[in-house]
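Q: What does the assembly look like in three dimensions?
Context provided by user:
Components: four
Sequences:
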Amino acid sequence: MKLDPYDRALLAALQDDARTPQSALGEQVSLSTAAVNRRLKALAGEGVIERFSAQLNPKALGYDLTVVVEVKVESERADLLDQMQRSFAACPQVQQCYYVAGDCDFVLIFLVRDMEQYVALTRKLFFESHNVKTFKTLVAMNRVKTGATVPVDAA
Amino acid sequence: MKLDPYDRALLAALQDDARTPQSALGEQVSLSTAAVNRRLKALAGEGVIERFSAQLNPKALGYDLTVVVEVKVESERADLLDQMQRSFAACPQVQQCYYVAGDCDFVLIFLVRDMEQYVALTRKLFFESHNVKTFKTLVAMNRVKTGATVPVDAA
DNA sequence: CCTGAAATATCTAAAAG
DNA sequence: CTTTTAGATATTTCAGG
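A: Here is the predicted structure of the complete assembly.
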């Protein structure tokens, strides 16, 4: 799974705009269209490119409230943690979820329509699990950065 | 900026796979290719679709450490906060950054190669700003959920 | 590995109902 | 809104260096 500078340039360009024609990509990196096509297929096959996705404007869909939540659990029992993680991941309004080491156990990022929806989700996800000791809510006043791209710099 | 069920279905499909041919989209939602084309153009023009992007596998690029950081600032002066936000947003390893109300002022999600890179970035971003009072590091043991899509359900 | 050309598929716009 | 048409663009394969 080695990535040469051509691959990295292609990946950077595709993160920026996945619709760039392969011919245009070829011009940018000085490769033929066919070479670009072959590389992209390989990158997708190896799983370096996971998928192509449309990024939507949350506000246009009525989702304009982001909330960061820190969760502390009662028990670290593996089966309980697994169940929690599954329920978190299954919630469409949970945009990110991390199981972390430190002052708390989980950090979740919610994207919700309004506070009412947020409260309803906390009741559903946290109280029904019977394993949440406490959770702390941080309401985002400003989404300074979202939808960032993965750095493609060489090691 | 009204979205009917057709639009929502198209948006959901495009978040899942931005490369789905418009003919296939049309079959899925029972619309002609031409109708799909028209709707997609309108959705892009209105800014509902912000961009098309390739989602990469961070591990394949040598980025496999996610760190959540909570930052408290010394001063809430607007010009200082603006400057901090700009420097945070400009850092490629900062995947998300939120200015929040609650126990801390900023929450950042870093995607880094290793701890060494993380420490170097904190020095650069936090110490050089001269406005960070404290910061708390939460290392992700498991990325339970990332790269989620925006819910497209109707209000 | 690459290039360049040919074949296939897709997109886009226009015309007409 | 639909379908159909036609031409432009993009993708993919293949021959050959």
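Follow-up: The radius of gyration of chain B is 20 Å.
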